[in-house]
Amino acid sequence: MIRIFVDTNILISAILKPQSDVAMAYYKALLVGDVFVSKNVLNELSYVVNKKFPKMLNEYQQFLIGLEEGVTVINGPLKIDVLENKIRDEKDRPILRAALSVDADIFLTGDKDFLEADIERPLIMSPAEFLQYSDIPPDDPLKVADGGNKYNK
Length: 153
Prior knowledge:
This protein is of the alpha/beta class.
């Protein structure tokens, strides 16, 4: 099964606009793969919702209930990976480190710092790219590694 790591901005969009293409990409990830987030991602999600979208706290709480059922939450590893240097924003590096630690096939994000990084694995994909990425059967993760180069920026 495909291993998909999801970034904070995807979760925020799924909460704020549950009918959006970004939310559909998140739900597709849940259907076709094993989905992972780190505690760093969840901490950032909580911070952003509480600070910028306090009126969405009820939706946030409901979303977390669903998230607990379909997503594996991991601790971010402490050991630094050399690929982290390809990420401009140092605050984002622990997120990539977490994706690498679970050997993710796909990193789903809308963050340009990740999307513009020259990283071959995991494939770093925007929600739009992921929604179009339908030719890969969920039970064949090797095809993800072989066929995804066209999505690298």
